[in-house]
Amino acid sequence: MATGADAQPPKSVLGRALGVLGAFSDSSPELALADIVAVTGLPPATAHRIVAELVAWGALERVGRGRYRVGMRLWRVGALAPIARTLREAALPPMQDLAAVTGHVVHLVVRDGFRALFVERLAGQEDSTVRSRVGRDMPMHASGPGKVLLAHSPPQLVEDIVARGLPRLAPGTITDAATLRSALDDIRRTGYCLSYQEMTEGVSTVAAPITDGEGRVVAALAVVVPASLSLQPFVPAVQLAAAAASRRLGRQPAE
Amino acid sequence: MATGADAQPPKSVLGRALGVLGAFSDSSPELALADIVAVTGLPPATAHRIVAELVAWGALERVGRGRYRVGMRLWRVGALAPIARTLREAALPPMQDLAAVTGHVVHLVVRDGFRALFVERLAGQEDSTVRSRVGRDMPMHASGPGKVLLAHSPPQLVEDIVARGLPRLAPGTITDAATLRSALDDIRRTGYCLSYQEMTEGVSTVAAPITDGEGRVVAALAVVVPASLSLQPFVPAVQLAAAAASRRLGRQPAE
Questions:
Q1: Which domains does chain A have, with CATH numbers?
Q2: Which of A69, B118, B144, B195 has the greatest count of CB atoms below 10 A from its CB?
Q3: Which residue ranges does UniProt annotate as crossing the membrane (chains A, B) (predicted)?
């Protein structure tokens, strides 16, 4: 989200304030005023005034020595977003069951532009080395849930993602367009995705789509297992949990 | 968070934009432009311009027929808040274990001013009638986790909350100051709280404090059980889960 020090800062006051919020990221969750100035390109006095107003409202909070983090009030507003309030609430009970039955990490993932975004992550029985985190994103082509979402996206998105390149992240990453298209066909045909060490070496996933009340694929559910295990036995449990989440999501009142 | 139509709208552009975000709430997660105008007291043209800029950035999203909800990008920024990124991540695995072992709803709660705020809620084995929801708040005096947090708050906060009144929410709500102070003493002495139908009729809770690396109580963990059950047998499991969360929280790098 960082725009870089050489970017033109937005002209509107609100645009500048949103730029300050956007300076905080998964890799920089805590920033000094000087960092905010560097990322946004705002004059220090302007940045200081905006930060003070954001702190007063509760969008940011001061954490000592002139450092800032995102505040509780902004978290509360963000928790009103449909992916948190509707999707996550529908998916959570089946996710808990899937984590309890398999003992492995379980992910809930949605598409955010060209990337796949972790909406929820439940722990497995062992402290895992998977570097997933709620709010973090990853490439669409290099993971099981990413490919499930891609398989059910408009064809143009697949073309755009192929055109942007398919970088290798791990030994199993699909890096050529024909193999990716064939894998997406398989996902649409079978209703699930087996992904072998595509994002992280030593880690594989089994993923399945979650649909809303109109049958649209809105998310993917995945279980993360050591690459040494056979994946096929996890398929029924993942499909069952995804079906339970879909059913719960379809039942949600429109509000 | 609503300020009401008769409130003076803030003078700064940023203050007005924050007022628009603050118009969204747990009871009003989706608003039409006319609702936003009514809640903020902004002129319609100003509200429209602010909403358009918030939508363009991703803080809000349009959901058809001129209605708006909180957007995915604001959720992502909110997920960077320490209660989500540090506290919730530390507490989640023991919460999953507590929900799996007991089969009941599990809550993670922090203090937000004079109120207690649900940071996380895991499901029990049965569809529950508990009206808890992530991001929703409740009175401090009328629940187990609220009383745990109150027991470990500055004494002045207890006085302030008593002065604001102790309304009855359910048959078991503590409504007089002496009984409340005595209950808080018990919590500090025993290290846990049994709460009998204080917030919701038919529902009781067992709660225990979560401490950070410096031993400060930063949150409360609670299991929610039918009022017909004996609470004492749940105490060791809740205390153990709270201790595991505290240990994990103390291990977190400061970043």
A1: 13-77 (1.10.10.10), 82-251 (3.30.450.40)
A2: B144
A3: none
